[in-house]
Amino acid sequence: MSKPIVTGLLSYGMSGRIFHAPFLASHPGFEFKAVLERNNKSAAQRYPSLESYDSIGEMLQDASIELIVVNTPNYTHFDYAMQALHAGKHVLIEKPAAVTVKQVETLFGEGRKLGLQVMIFQNRRFNSDFLSAKEVIESGRLGNLIEVHFRIDRYRIAIGNKPFKEDKAFPGNGLLYDLGSHLLDGAISLFGKPTSYRKTTAVHRPGSVVDDYFHFHLSYPNQLNVYLSSGLLIAEPEYGFVVHGTSGSFLKMRTDLQESQITGGMLPNETDFGIEPEGAEGKLVIIDGQGQKSTTLLKSPRGDYQGIFEAVYQTIRNQAAFPVSEDEVLWQMEMLEG
């Protein structure tokens, strides 16, 4: 392996603590060197060798840093990523890539002009539950696909304390830009760009001024219909993955453990990391040529967000194609913004 990629993280909030820092620190291809902490300097309690900067300008002046992880509020993604590119750094940007299609096109264009990588962080492609659904879909065991449902259900009636998510003054607010980017990416990664789509958003929580419910209906060739839904007032979660085909069905709850394991102190390189417990299996129902039904419980592949960091490493060091393509990101942004 070539020399590690020296990396700076722009926030040590929830996403920094859970989805980035543990993987940067445990992957041999990265040197997790610096973090931006404007107020509470807490990252060094977990990572003693880290340098803590007070501003993005100070971090970008560190010539040794090659990669900046932009994991700040959505409305800042474009500005901070552009600053990092102009400082000669590659960027890994949390979803959504930015707030508008125009901003994303500008970022990709600037990266190409400067010879730098602009990569969008879509970690849920490496969830155990998604990987299980992907494996079944790509196996062809369901025959010709007819109907697909992906959803994320939560119950959070209280208005959150993060203005950039709950206040219309901040572009990229609401549930659509938060979880919609995950669900759209999952569909696009499996089925490509839809031939058409319909989008519904709604506001249900008392006092909310931003969307807390959305639904997409994506239409694909051969009469395949894909439905993506999420809401913050769903008291009883439904299956996160439902796939119907001419030969059978697959049903799977959302069961990935990585976030809860990291929160509980487990490290990504521990033996049980990302492995679902017994009882979390997906249900595969097949109808054979004689009309006989069989049901099989399928254990999921191991979930491992390290996969996206490995892709970042290979893209920067070996010029490999990043798995989340520019086209896929732009298709997603068109539907988020449209």
Structure overview:
This protein is α/β, with parallel strands linked by helices. The chain has two domains: 5-123 and 307-320, NAD(P)-binding Rossmann-like Domain (Rossmann fold); 125-303, Dihydrodipicolinate Reductase, domain 2 (2-Layer Sandwich), CATH 3.30.360.10. It is built from eleven helices and 14 strands. The strands form two sheets. An eight-stranded mixed sheet has the order 8-9-10-7-11-12-13-14, with helices on one face. Helix 2 links the parallel strand 2 (30-36) and strand 3.
**Shape estimate:** globular
What fraction of residues sit in β-strands?
15-25%
Distance between the termini: 43 Å
What is the CATH domain class of the largest domain?
A: Alpha Beta
Using the CA coordinates, give the radius of gyration: 20 Å
Number of strands: 14
Mean pLDDT: 97
Task: Give the strand order of the largest sheet, numbering strands 1, 2, ... along the chain.
Answer: 8-9-10-7-11-12-13-14
CATH architecture of the largest domain: 2-Layer Sandwich
Question: Can you say what the CATH homologous superfamily of the largest domain is?
Answer: Dihydrodipicolinate Reductase, domain 2
Give the proportion of residues in helices: 25-40%
SSE sequence, one letter per element: EHEHEHEHEHEHEHHEEEEEHEEHH
CATH topology (fold) name of the largest domain: Dihydrodipicolinate Reductase, domain 2
Structural class: alpha/beta
* Helix count from the secondary structure assignment: 11
